[in-house]
Amino acid sequence: MLRITTLFAGLLLATFAQAERIDNFVLLDQHGDAHNLYYHKDKSAIVVMIQGNGCPIVRNALSDYKALRDQYAGQGVHFLMLNSNLQDQRSTILAEAEKYGIDMPILHDESQLVGESLSLIRTAEVLVIDPKTWDIAYRGPINDRQVYERQKAQASNHFAADAIANVLAGEAVDVANRDTMGCLINFAQRNVDHAQISYADTIAPLLQEKCVVCHTEGGIGPWAMSSYEMVRGFAPMMREVIRTKRMPPWHADPHIGAWKNDKSLSIEQAQTLVHWIEAGAPRGLGEDPLKNLTITQSEWPLGEPDLIIDLPTYDIPASGVVEYKFPRLANTLDQGVWVKAATVIPGNREVVHHILAGSIDATTAQAKRDSGVFDNYLIGYAPGNESNVFPQDTGVYIAPGGEFTFQLHYTPIGREVTDSSRIGLYFHDKQPGNFYRQSVVMDPTIEIPPNEARHAEVAYYAFDKPALLHDLVPHSHYRGVASKFVLQGPDGSRETVLSVPNYDFNWQRTYTFVEPKRIEPGSKLIHTTWYDNSAANPGNPDPERTVPWGLQSWDEMLYGAFSYTFVDETSEAPILDKALADTTQMVGFMDKDMDGKLSWQELPGSLKRRLVQGFKMVDTNADGGLDINELYSMSKRSREARSSDSDSGAGGG
Ligand code: HEC
User: Fold this and answer.
1) Is the pTM value of this prediction over 0.85?
2) What's the rounded mean pLDDT across residues 173-180?
3) Domain 307-431 maps to which CATH number in 2.170.120.12, 1.20.1250.20, 3.40.50.2300, 2.60.120.310?
4) Which partner for 119 in 16, 351, 357, 496 could form a disulfide, CB atoms 3.0-4.6 Å apart?
5) What is the CA(215)–ligand 1 centre distance, in A?
6) Whose CA is nearest to atom 13 of ligand 1?
7) What single DSSP character describes residue 325?
8) Helix (H, G, I), strand (E, B), or coil: what is residue 69?
9) 14-169 has which CATH code?
């Protein structure tokens, strides 16, 4: 019996050891940046060294690995490291990288799913991958310089370098597999029998919790998880979208922040699903919970709304790209209202991908109205996010007049349909205690250079009063690939409060804190978005273009929306000065060195022209820069001057 088992294990290892194709994955590195293996399809080779903290062989091989990278610099070879260790965390990997001078990404395989599928056994192994076929052309030691507890000054055989040369030349590698010296990796689940995972008791309920809201008859998911047979058929595809973090569509770095509406899979859930799929997606015993599942969506989940707004009806073609719709409807309410909640009911759940809804005040200038920016943001709908209920005793005040404004994104489904969606608003009976306020960290002056793969744009919003931050919405277009919000305290300390390392334009998510974040006066909310304007970005409409700000998806935005309440504000005694907020927003994108004031160099041309004579006068504290208060006083003076001009003009007439 024992012998048979050993023989079987040996056979398994033998099959594993054969040259294999490497399946795609997305993993985050020691800094929390996302890496998609197949993104590098145009590289001439991809080289991965298996890393593990505290392994002397890895540490001693680092200089050779860096030398290998330098040797192939300029030949389009991409170098990475991969850590599948059970015992290592992002923070300890970062510490090891800093201590040993590792200046390349170490992909952290937290779930061990990638390492398992590569049949990794030891660290220090080097994989040389041919991106033309995704075959692993070579796996083994980097060279023969090290054995356990011994190392030579010079290697006599350079296995990895030779293998890379072979791949570049389109030749086969002589010996494709070699034994590696390195530290054994403990794969906790390698010897577990995953065929025992129960479809009926474990898998189906998990899918119901995380996927079925979209993957149902009449849902936006392209196929319905309506039976075991459907799920089994799509199982390999499910494995792929989980490994590449496409599904479920929730893109926040799980190590940062805790979110009220978190839709992600935990590591354990991802392992369970993928292990079950890799075990052949066995049916097992028990009734099929996904059969005859009916999703009952009561009309208005929060009850009958106080105002129902019917959006225009749109005909959605069978295929192609439907450009975003931006309908604007007059606000016909004859008095101001305090909104406490909003719900969206999509007309056709199959095509309505997302809807953003808000309003624009009557007093807002036309140019800003046309910019697609909301004055009052109400809800961002996506399946699973039907309603937005504001924090207790807060509200959004909507004055009479102005417009309700929307952004609709439709995805064609292979046949023509029409959609008439509705939004329901709920009002407070009486004035709530506080304002639920919203603003945006933005920069309408962005310029994204052509062919740049990772271009960053940064802006901030400065707080001069204590506040609570409730939620964050990063937004960019086809070229946006990652976004971050960092809170910088008055003492200069920095905390990342949201990171979306693999932003996906398809999914406009609101990330709502479980515990609102306290903001001290003198803090800055810093928002960064990275854009991939290279040809390697499959969503890039034109890599040759210098991309400006614009509402259309072929233009770009640096746009980080946030909601907050002022700690010392009440709705009876508002403390927000809108003109000051506008100045704050403006300084936040012009102040490139983020020192809190605009130097002469930082001023845009139009302001320079205006201030040729007056810079010193506006700079009342004479520190060589214009801060928010100085600019605010300047704009206040010119507003007053303008209004007294028009007063005297009227009097003269
Ligand atoms: C919020 C809605 C939503 C949720 C939740 C969701 N999906 Fe999806 N899924 C979609 C949409 C829409 C697509 C179509 C492609 C796209 O937009 O990315 C899709 C595509 C897929 C595909 C690929 C089909 C293809 O070939 O493109 C698979 C497989 C899949 N989802 C599996 C899952 C699994 C597994 C879960 C749960 C763990 C899940 N989805 C959760 C909406 C969702």
Assistant:
1) yes
2) 94
3) 2.60.120.310
4) 16
5) 7
6) 221
7) B
8) helix
9) 3.40.30.10
